[in-house]
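Appendix C reproduces, verbatim, an entry submitted by the partner laboratory led by Prof. M.T., so that reviewers can inspect both the input and the predicted structure.
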Amino acid sequence: QVQLVESGGGSVQAGGSLTLSCVASGTRINFSIDTMAWYRQAPGEQRELVATVSPGRTTSYADSVKGRFTISRNNAENTVYLRMNSLKPQDTAVYYCYAEILAGPRWADYWGKGTLVTVST
C-alpha cells in the first residue's frame, strides 16, 4: 500500500509565502514514481492542476501561478514540494498531492488527502 502525505499548509497574509511537502511511502512494497503534481480545489470550485514535475525535473505551471510558485522533487526521498510566494486570497484552497506510481502490475494515480491553505487580505 502506497500513501501520499502532505504537510505545510496553513494560514498566511496576502503577499506571504508557504512551502508544501508531500512524501510517498509504502509498507513492505517497492514502487516507482513518474509524474508528481499539485492540484488545488477552492470552495465551490472544481479541482484544478497547479503544477507538475517529471522524474527528470521538467516542470509546468498553471498560468495563474507562473512566476510565483515553484514545484520541485527529491527522487531519492520520494518527495515533492511546492514553494508558494506572493500568495493571493484567490490561492485559498485545499492543495492535493498527486503521483503516478507503479506499485503492482500497472501504473496508477495516487492522491494525498489534502492540506488547507488560507490566504487573508
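DSSP finds no helices and eleven strands in the chain. Additional entries are available on request from the coordinating office.
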